Automatic annotation (TrEMBL):
Residues 163-276 form the Mandelate racemase/muconate lactonizing enzyme C-terminal domain. Gene3D superfamilies: Enolase-like C-terminal domain, Enolase-like, N-terminal domain. It comes from the Archaea. InterPro entries: DgoD-like, Enolase-like_C_sf, Enolase-like_N, Enolase_C-like, Mandelate_racemase_C, Mandelate_racemase_N_dom, Xylonate_dehydratase_2. Coiled coil: none annotated. GO terms for molecular function: xylonate dehydratase activity. This is Mandelate racemase/muconate lactonizing enzyme family protein. CDD domains: MR_like. Keywords: Lyase. SMART domains: MR_MLE.
Length: 411
């Protein structure tokens, strides 16, 4: 049998010719893909949160770095998961992810620490797979829409209940640090509380929170977007009253105004106001996010990549959100590893709005990796290097280990 060359109909190649020309490339590809996981290890770094760093080792040499949200029992859960992935091919990310979920199904693997632990391994699999295939992690998600990803700075002051102090810090972060996106907390004491346990907001409390919003948004003006976080603190009626009070201000979004369990209430709050409502960091996997999205329970979806399922699961959540024309603002309190993983997802999805940065007051955050200038003027350039494009500085990791932790073994 002969096959003609489409560019030159007079040229002919036999199947034997084609095989001999490509045999070397095929063999090389086969060798590169014949890889096994040899170990998974974790350490907890004592940052402004307990960062659980995860490493996946392979018999081919490359090591993948990931991160799970956060601390607690995660190392023990990851140790439980390790036998399920050792000996497996790290390039089979989807299969290994489902394999881990199934193996932990009897222990509640639809949410919580189990999914966070699986997420940490999944991030490391993207890093090591990118290194093996010599492509950046975003390429494993289908390529990129943008070269850099916007970050928003989660801001704090010594007196977070003081509206003027919040406005001062907002202005400083914009002018001195170069951010054009910010977030402040609203679940702060106002001095007017009678009983915080009942989640009810009295009128003076609403006025206090509105004053924080007014002063911050007026101070930054059109130089920056400003979001505000409630941390699931308020009752349904109080959340609706607060959201309506804030409609007069330029609020980027109001985050998690009610507890996360009841999607019906979340939807009612969102649909009762013109203030944009964000939620999603405490809702796990695409299945968990489904009702929030399909029933129009949010205006902005806010998954946490190292927590709710990993990079591919976050991309799947974004795909579902995009069907309903919703943007994605990724919650993030991670070290540079988890933050960069979120940035790769942000590069690969069309509806990325921003990625949170929560460590601007921590002077050594960037020291954990060898690369510099990860965030410049509020934007993260997405590396073209293989995998996540970051190299852990093991000396810095060791210097900031949480109490009782030991550095990774060389596996």
């Amino acid at each position: 049998m002969h096959y003609g060359n489409l560019r030159d109909p007079n040229a002919e190649y036999t199947m034997r010719d084609l095989s001999s020309e490509t045999m070397g490339l095929t063999a090389d590809r086969g060798e590169r893909r014949d890889v096994e996981i040899t170990d998974v290890q974790t350490v907890i770094v004592d940052g402004n949160y307990p960062w659980t760093l995860v490493r996946v080792y392979t018999d081919a040499g490359p090591v993948g770095n990931g991160e799970a949200y956060w601390g607690g029992a995660l190392p023990e859960i990851i140790e439980r998961l390790t036998p399920f992935v050792v000996g497996e091919n790290p390039l089979d990310i989807d299969r290994l992810y489902e394999h881990m979920v199934q193996k932990m199904s009897g222990e509640g693997s639809i949410a919580g620490k189990d999914i966070a632990a699986i997420s940490g391994i999944e991030l490391a699999l993207h890093d090591v797979a990118g290194k093996i295939l010599d492509v950046p992690a975003y390429q494993l998600l289908g390529g990129k829409y943008r070269d850099s990803v916007r970050t928003y700075c989660d801001c704090h002051t010594e007196d977070e209940a003081d509206p003027e102090a919040c406005a001062d810090e907002a202005e400083r972060v914009v002018e001195e640090l170069g951010y054009d996106a910010l977030k402040f907390d609203l679940d702060v004491p106002s001095g007017h509380e009678k009983d915080r346990a009942n989640r009810h907001l009295r009128r003076p409390e609403i006025e206090h929170k509105a004053e924080i919003v007014r002063q911050v948004t007026e101070r930054v003006g059109d130089r920056a977007d400003a979001a505000f976080d409630c941390h699931w603190a308020f009752a349904s009626g109080s959340a609706k009253r607060l959201a309506r009070e804030l409609e007069q201000y330029d609020v980027w979004w109001l985050e998690d105004p009610v507890p996360p369990e009841n999607h019906d209430v979340q939807r009612e709050v969102t649909q009762s106001t013109g203030t944009p409502i964000a939620a999603g960091e405490n809702v796990y996997r695409t299945h968990g996010q489904r009702r929030l999205i399909t029933e129009e329970g949010v205006d902005i979806v806010a998954p946490d990549c190292p927590k709710v399922g990993g990079m591919r699961e976050t991309a799947k959540i974004a795909t579902l959100a995009d069907m309903f024309y919703l943007p994605v603002a990724m919650h993030n309190v991670s070290s540079p590893i988890g933050t960069m993983a979120s940035a790769h997802v942000g590069a690969a999805i069309p509806n990325a709005l921003a990625v949170e940065y929560h460590s601007y007051e921590l002077g050594w955050w960037e020291d954990l990796v060898e690369e510099d200038d990860l965030i410049v003027d509020g934007y993260m350039d997405v590396p073209e290097e293989p995998g996540l494009g970051l190299t852990l500085d093991l000396d810095a990791v060791e210097a900031h280990l949480a109490e009782g932790q030991e550095l990774f073994d060389a596996a």
